[in-house]
Amino acid sequence: MTRAAQTSLAWLAPRIAAIPTTPLSLPPILSSLARADAMAEGDQVGIGGWVSTKHGLAWFAEAHSMEEIRAFWPFLTKDAQKYIACFETLAQLALAMTAKSHHGHTRLSLCLPTESDNTPTEGGVNKLFTTSWPLSEFLSLVASWSSANGVTIQVSHIAGAHNEWADDLSRGRLQAFAHRSRDRFRVSLEMLASASAKASWSSKVVNLLHRSVGSSTCTTMPLVHALDALLESLLPRCGPDVDFQGPLPYLLVALASTDMLDFRKTGEGKKYFRLKAAAAKKARVDSAREKYLGKDDAPKPPPAAPGAYQVFVQEKRPTLQSAGKNLGEVAKEMSQMWGNYSEEDRKPYEQRAAELKAEYEDKMKEYKQSEAYKKFERARNAIFKKPKAKKEAKAKTAKKPKKAKQTKPKAKAKAKAKGKAKAKARGRGKKQASASDSDVMGSDSDSDSDSSSSDSD
């Protein structure tokens, strides 16, 4: 643990011990029925929804242009339909504001059950987590407003066909609520954009933590509530708009940084950051595809070639439908017919499917030879850092002569050393041989002298 983290813990420990403990429990669920929806077509955006409680009914309906929306969120530069999940999240935030004002002022925490027909909004608002941008910007508004007002939004999915009233309100069709004009709640863009400005002191600290750690996701509600309890006990007179410049946020930053470093070393942390990096690369590839291949004048890829069974269905479906059967009966009968076919009966359809596949491959080759696709492929290779084979071959050939130049002097030096060692060994061998020969000759002369002396005697 770093010295900053140890100092932070020493500073926080006695203060945390003084906080009375309370059992963790979910806030009470508000008995209500609430639904919201959003519309995005061309340059127009609309949000609408309604909530019904024991106090009565309240509803909202607002329409804005993309020019008005970009005044608060200038990074929304594309067509409105590209950001439908963001506008659905804004509709859920507006619905929570409507329910809060309709339910009355209370300091009790509440859980507001709502319904939406947009799956990314449902998952994002419930978890307050996403790796998608700019949806994370709008989820941060929801998290900040929920923490400041003590309202937890719990979104469940509803089919679009059953969300007619909210859909009518988002499209400006107010006939069903014309007689309830007094119950209309006006939600301006200023109110929605200032949700983070009205956040609690701890929410601002959490945002500072995430900016310092480098996380692009929203925080979770338990962390925000825990910091609320801590900071309200330490600083009871600080309001929601207090400007914090003291040491506490930076001590918390040190703790969060230490925890993040430890988290990166765990298996879950490695998996999280690996998936996050893969999602970031996928988002970059999608943006490159949209840039080079998503334009109106860009070439379109050929449709995929059908298989043998699909060719069979295209041939038999008109005759079966003409008999007055519905789609389910037609599909069931065609599957039975195909199952009863022998291999010889299926050969014509397989041959036709092979011909269509060859035509598809030829068209796909032409499509990949287009200039727009080549630009997209270069951008994709740059994202994944996959060098081409030609560059690798050139790099290998360029490295080979360098290795040869470096190894030649070493080889020559080794050869010279070996030669010198051999020469020394030969010299030593000759000296030893001459010495042994002299010893042998000396012994022979001695024996001769002895024999001569014995003869004389």
From TrEMBL:
Transmembrane segments: none annotated. One of its GO terms (biological process) is regulation of transcription by RNA polymerase II. Keywords: Coiled coil, DNA-binding, Nucleus. One of its GO terms (cellular component) is nucleus. Residues 432-457 have a biased composition (Low complexity). Pfam families: HMG_box_2 (PF09011). InterPro entries: HMG_box_dom (IPR009071), HMG_box_dom_sf (IPR036910), HMGB (IPR050342). Residues 302-368 bind DNA. Residues 377-457 are annotated as: Disordered. SUPFAM superfamilies: HMG-box (SSF47095). Residues 346-373 form a coiled coil. It comes from the Eukaryota. Residues 396-431 have a biased composition (Basic residues). Residues 302-368 form the HMG box domain. GO terms for molecular function: DNA binding. PANTHER family: HIGH MOBILITY GROUP PROTEIN DSP1, MITOCHONDRIAL TRANSCRIPTION FACTOR A, ISOFORM B. This is High mobility group protein B3. It comes from Symbiodinium microadriaticum. The gene is HMGB3.
